[in-house]
Amino acid sequence: MTAWEPWIGRCIVQQDVLTAATLARFRATIDSAATGETAEQAIHWCLCLPDAPTAALGADGHPRREDSPDSFMPPIPLPRRMWAASDATFHAPFRAGAAIERTSTIAAINEKSGGTGKLVFVEVDHETRADGELAVSERQTIVFREPPPAAAGAVAGEAPEGDPDLSGWTWHRELLPDEALLFRYSALTFNSHRIHYDLPYATAEEGYRGLVVHGPLTATLLLDLAQRELGPNALTAFRMRAQAPAFCGEPLHLVGRAKEDGWEMAAIGPDGRTIMAAEAKA
């Protein structure tokens, strides 16, 4: 038995309500042109939010992980955390006023070693219901990593320059994530991870070259691109994998193209590197 075996199967159930005000703020944050009571796909990442007291937050702004019967996430001693992947199936749309219930279960915990050191991957299954009907089922992969090298400034690097070749993509939307967008999404999702708003912490402590764009925000913008191209709630499935961080103040290219059984999508940085790779199906 591994040290994390007792955590497999641990479950938490949360309740929420999708209010009209939450839906309006979601649309305002991503500049969505949608209207009406039916919410866009990606709204589920703004529901059943963490609610740890401020006194329970760790140095990074996340709730401290403790070996306690009341703790959901295992006490993995690696300080850096990121949302690495998600595989979501959309069963039914959300509507304003719906009562929301999310059941989250730890499905697997795997330890690996990579070029940056020790890694621990935690896979969490979520089932989100709206007024009792299953709306989204999703497996998320969260990765925990070792701290960056002591010379964090060297890790941070310089912002890239140049224009990526996007000629092979059919859909394209360019935007410049700024501090206001990151602040609004942090507020919308009650996310206090300091890499999204505390520049000295992001660069000196975690070794990034700037404020980091939230992974769920990037995925949300890709789903918004799909809605702009295909219409509301057109997808039945969306799978994404984060490959590199996106940074505040650097152009972000959201792209897509048809393939045999759906669409290939990506978020691409100003130097052509893939920030997030995704697949979608109708």
Give structural notes.
This protein is α+β, with helices and mostly antiparallel strands and 282 residues long. The chain has 5 helices and 10 strands. The chain is globular.
In a few lines, what is going on in this structure?
By secondary structure, the chain is of the alpha+beta class. The chain is 18% helix and 34% strand.
Write out the strand line-up for the largest beta sheet, numbering strands in chain order.
1-3-4-5-2-7-10-9-8-6
Q: Approximately how much helix is present in the residues?
A: 10-25%
Return Rg in Å.
Answer: 19 Å
Q: What is the N-to-C order of secondary-structure elements (H for helix, E for strand)? A: EHEEEEHEHHHEEEE
- Mean pLDDT across residues: 92
Kindly estimate the percentage of residues that lie in beta strands according to DSSP.
Answer: 25-35%
**Unreliable spans:** 151-155
Tertiary shape: globular
Number of helices: 5
Major β-sheet profile: 10 strands, antiparallel
Spatial separation of the terminal alpha carbons? 41 Å
Number of strands: 10
Class of secondary structure makeup: alpha+beta
Tags for this entry?
single chain, alpha+beta, 10-stranded antiparallel sheet, 18% helix, 34% strand
Reconstruct the topology from this structure:
Layout: E1 11-17, H1 20-30, E2 80-90, E3 99-114, E4 117-130, E5 133-145, H2 152-156, E6 171-175, H3 179-189, H4 199-205, H5 215-230, E7 237-242, E8 252-259, E9 262-268, E10 274-281
Antiparallel strand pairs: 1-3, 2-5, 2-7, 3-4, 4-5, 6-8, 7-10, 8-9, 9-10
Helix pairs in contact: 1-3
